[in-house]
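Bit of a strange request maybe. I'm writing a small parser for C-alpha cell strings and I need a real example to test against, not something I typed by hand. Could someone generate the C-alpha cells for this chain?
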Amino acid sequence: MKPQDTPAENAEAPAAGESAQDSPWLEYDAWRWHTEGSFPKDQPPEQGYVHIGVFVAWLAYHDMLDADWLARSGLANSVASMRDRRANVCALRDLTDGRLASEMLTPEGQGFTGAYYAPEYGYIRDWRKVFGKRADHYEVPDDWQTYDRIEPLVELRYHEWMDAGRPELMPLPRLLNLMLRFVRPRARRG
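Reply from user aminoacidic:
Good idea to test on real output. This should exercise your parser:
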C-alpha cells in the first residue's frame, strides 16, 4: 500500500488567531490514493478501502467519530448499523467518499490516528504484519473476520499510545532495532 499523495499535502497550518479546529481538515488516507496508479488489475477497486474501513470501524467502536460530524453528514444510523454488525465493516466507504479525515474524528480520535496512522509507520505496518502479502496485493477480505484479526493489535497500540502520554507519533522501540540491523555489520561466522 503506497499512497500516491501524503496526508500532509492536504493540510494547512492554522493562520494566526485561528484554531486547529477552524483550519482545513487533514486527510489521513483516502480510497483514491490506493486505486489510482499501480492498483492490481485483478482486484476490484473496493479492495483499496478495506484497511481504511476496518480502522474507521475500530474508531466507531471506541466512540472516536465526532458526534457533530455524524449529525452533519447524516451517517449516525449507518454507523450504528456497522457497530451492530448489521452492515459490512466497510459500509461507510461510499458515504465518506472513501476518506479518513480529521473532520470525522473526536480530538482523541485525531490524536491517536495522527500518531498511529502515519504512512509506513504504524497502522499500515501492523496491517502488513497481520495479513502478510495479501495486504500488499489488496486481497484482505472486506468482512468482520478481518476486523476481528487486527482489532487486538490496534487496541494494544491505542493503550501503548495512552501509556506513552499520547505522543504525536507512536513510540516504537522495536523500529530502532530493526533499523540498526541494516546499519550494523553482521559478525561473520567462521
